[in-house]
Amino acid sequence: VMARSSPLDKHTLVKHLRTTFGEVVAVTGDGTNDAPALHEADIGLAMGIAGTEVAKESADVIILDDNFSTIVTVAKWGRSVYLTVNIVALMVNFTSACLTGSTPLTAVQLLWVNMIMDTLGALALATEPPNDALMKRTPVGRQGNFISNVMWRNIFGQSLYQFIVIWLLQTKGKSFYGLYGHNSDLILNTLIFNSFVFCQLFNEINSREMEKVNVLSGIWKNNVFVSVLSATVVFQVIIIEFLGTFASTSPLTLKQWYYSVLTGFLSMPIAVLLKMIPV
Predict the structure, then answer these.
(1) C-alpha count within 13 angstroms, C-beta hemisphere, residue 10
(2) Separation CA 224–CA 244 (nearest Å)
(3) Number of Cβ within a 10 Å radius of residue 10
(4) Which of 111, 199, 155, 143 is nearest to 24 (CA)?
(5) Of 145, 190, 253, 278, which is least surrounded by CB within 10 A?
């Protein structure tokens, strides 16, 4: 805390913390004399009520209620929101194209999967309210990795499971489901697409907690998360059952739907086992 100091003093302190010591620096202020330090800092937080216009223009974040506890909320949200990575779609299509000359997922299906993983998935996970346990984590430094070892563990574990399941479906799926005839390839590709989508949906639930086993805690309190997942399931049913010409899919039987959902659900116990692996 610096008080009764000149603008140059504050700016010098922030500059040395950032350049000499490599620290990530946040500065709060409300006056014109805080502007240089607010601008120099990695994150400048200005007071929205008592703050001057100069301070607000120099800041990155404006605290509208002038309450320092709001800064804690900002930090919680910053630690809560992360990006997700999925490599299975690329691996499955690439290896299948190299070995068989065809890809199980069409362009329209890949677009829908991409929407689930990125747009809808990000919307669902970004609305997860942060908890106090986030503040107990060690801060990530300037040279820290954006994707932690815990995240890499979960990413590669789930990716390996999904890749194995989809590859088994592609090689053994026809005999497992008893698919024969001219329409067997279309039904098999539909099953691969459907299973892959449900793997992503259940993995979104797994991603609510990177380290805790109980990922269902408080899920019903987040209306946006539940709504996004429900809407995705509804659209998936419509795509499979009614948009066959557009999405290159074929209607599935109840047994085939059951196994597709079960394939996705198995990612949840696998996530529990992954979280037991120390990193």
Answers:
(1) 23
(2) 29
(3) 21
(4) 143
(5) 278
Question: 0.90 cut: is pTM over it?
Answer: no
pLDDT tens per residue across span 20-77: 988 889 999 888 888 999 999 998 999 988 889 998 999 998 888 888 888 888 777 7
Residues 6+ apart with CB under 8 A from 125: 81, 82, 84, 204, 207, 208, 225
- Dist. CA 266–CA 195, nearest whole Å: 11
Q: What is the identity of the amino acid at 218?
A: G
CA dist 37 to 8, 28, 32, 197, Å?
Answer: 8, 9, 10, 48
